[in-house]
Amino acid sequence: MIGVALTVPSQSEFEDALQSAITDRVASRIDAQDPTLWGPDAESEASIRLSWTHLPESSRPLVAEISALREDLVARGLDHVVLCGMGGSSLAPEVICHTAGVDLTVLDSSHPDMVRAAIADRLDRSVVVVSSKSGGTVETDSQRRAYEQAFTEAGIDPLERIIVVTDPGSPLDEEATETGYRVFRADPHVGGRYSALTAFGLVPSGLAGVDIGALLSSAETEEKLLYSDSADNPALRLGVLLGVANQHRVDKLVISDQTRHGVGDWIEQLVAESTGKLGKGVLPVVVPFENATNFNPSTPDSILVTIGGDGPPEAQSGFSADLQGDLGAQMLLWEVAVAVAGRLIGIDPFDQPDVESAKKAARELLSGSGSVPDPDFSENGIDVYGSGSSLTEAVQELLGQVDLDHGYLAIQVYLDRIAYADFAGVREVAAERLARPVTFGWGPRFLHSTGQYHKGGTPNGVFLQVTGTPEEDLAIAGRDFTFGSFIDSQAAGDAAVLRDHGRPVLRLHLHDVPAGLATIRELLA
């Protein structure tokens, strides 16, 4: 049974907003895929982005097809599933498999060390799902090329090992079909971050061994409740909570997943990319445990949410919630809730106008039409791109720009997230020092997630960017750039766009990555 228990500082204000949503039939109109809910400016995009509302039924035919394919692959000894995808194409399968205790290798990086390590892992038993909604995601295309080359060099036919998931008619669909790959075509009227229960979420998860039929049933069982114009609708209640809090400038959403399944990372993309635009939105802050700084203690501008907790936590702001329920149901609950919140905040929850800007800047750098600036100075094997005459001064100056009433720090790390996973703990270090919300994102993964909020959301972020020299670069077959130059261009391009938006950015490039990470941790303490 899905459920939301919540607290609010003003029960009457919350009840008035909830009753207004009920009177306006917001939930049932989402169910009916009414594109007028978010205003005339959003109607065009919303009209082609609402097919997610009934995915538990429309995706059901995929279950048998994916199950049959898995049986064939396992019979051939192919029991290691790799997913090449970014953002909405990778976050949901990662959470689904983690929740089910099923092994799935997610390659959502253009870092050469991470790509090389993934390819070296059980190649002889690997089946690779190449997943891209647009069919033009450069990271995913580069990963596909790397696997094609590796399979060919190992004497393996890539056609027997690579499976494609994309929208019908995309460049990837056309190329993969012509080449002879097995292609799953997803519903084109579902946006990437809403695609958990489409082929994008189900194909890699089902091939890895998840009971995807049960996942769909979990969501389907709760549809009647989640689309009801009722005060008992948990999605309506959560969405109204987010919207009312936002109207009071309580716009940080601190999430603690007590189940330890990682659903916070999926919620992070859904909330940040859906709401972060027009200079407003909700910033998700995912913390690793309930007593982590930013959760305990919290800040006056934060909503606290636990997944599978013991009831709503105590928040300084007075806004908090605890969510219960199976994963499929929770995914649908959050999707409805974010759509409801978007209406109250006054944004279109289905577009992402600022995501393309960083991609464009990276392409310009790769093509040579742009240039990466030289570092301002170097110290102890770290190149510093930003102001200051010393490393300590540069970090102190950046942190000094965090608004202590309403700002946040975003730490963005363009390194191998598997090899250096422990460095994510620096989030707690910085949060304790600043007593302000701190987010942590692995690049370029976050560019397809929170990157929209960083540039389009509330303009009070300060950004620390960490890059590093790889152990060894890796060429990309058929491309005139390498993985190393690609990820450098992505980092530099995003930094340039952030600066163009008036956001403070400090970039630290590490020549000795382990030593450099230790130095950064000390500087942030």
Secondary-structure blueprint:
Blueprint: E1 3-7, H1 11-23, H2 26-31, H3 40-46, H4 55-58, H5 60-75, E2 80-84, H6 91-100, E3 105-107, H7 112-120, E4 126-132, H8 138-153, E5 162-166, H9 171-179, E6 182-185, H10 199-208, H11 212-220, H12 223-226, H13 234-247, E7 252-257, H14 263-275, E8 283-287, E9 302-307, E10 320-324, H15 327-345, H16 355-367, E11 377-379, E12 382-385, H17 391-399, E13 408-414, H18 426-434, E14 438-442, H19 451-456, E15 461-468, H20 483-500, E16 505-510, H21 513-524
Helix pairs in contact: 1-13, 5-10, 6-10, 6-14, 11-15, 13-15, 14-15, 16-20
* Estimated helix fraction: 40-55%
Number of structural domains = 3
Q: How many DSSP-defined strands?
A: 16
Question: CATH superfamily assignment of the largest domain?
Answer: Glucose-6-phosphate isomerase like protein, domain 1
Strand portion, in percent? 15-25%
Strand order of the largest sheet: 11-12-16-15-13-14
Rounded mean pLDDT is: 95
Please identify the structural class as seen in this structure: alpha/beta
Which fold name fills CATH's third level, the topology of the largest domain? Rossmann fold
Gyration radius, to the nearest Å?
A: 22 Å
SS summary, helix count:
21
Please write the CATH class name of the largest domain.
Alpha Beta
What best-fitting shape do the alpha-carbon axes yield?
globular
- N- to C-terminal distance: 43 Å
Largest sheet: 6 strands, mixed
In the predicted model, the low-confidence regions spanning at least 5 consecutive residues are none
State the CATH architecture of the largest domain. 3-Layer(aba) Sandwich
EC number: 5.3.1.9
GO molecular function: carbohydrate derivative binding; glucose-6-phosphate isomerase activity; monosaccharide binding
Catalytic activity: alpha-D-glucose 6-phosphate = beta-D-fructose 6-phosphate
Keywords: Gluconeogenesis, Glycolysis, Isomerase
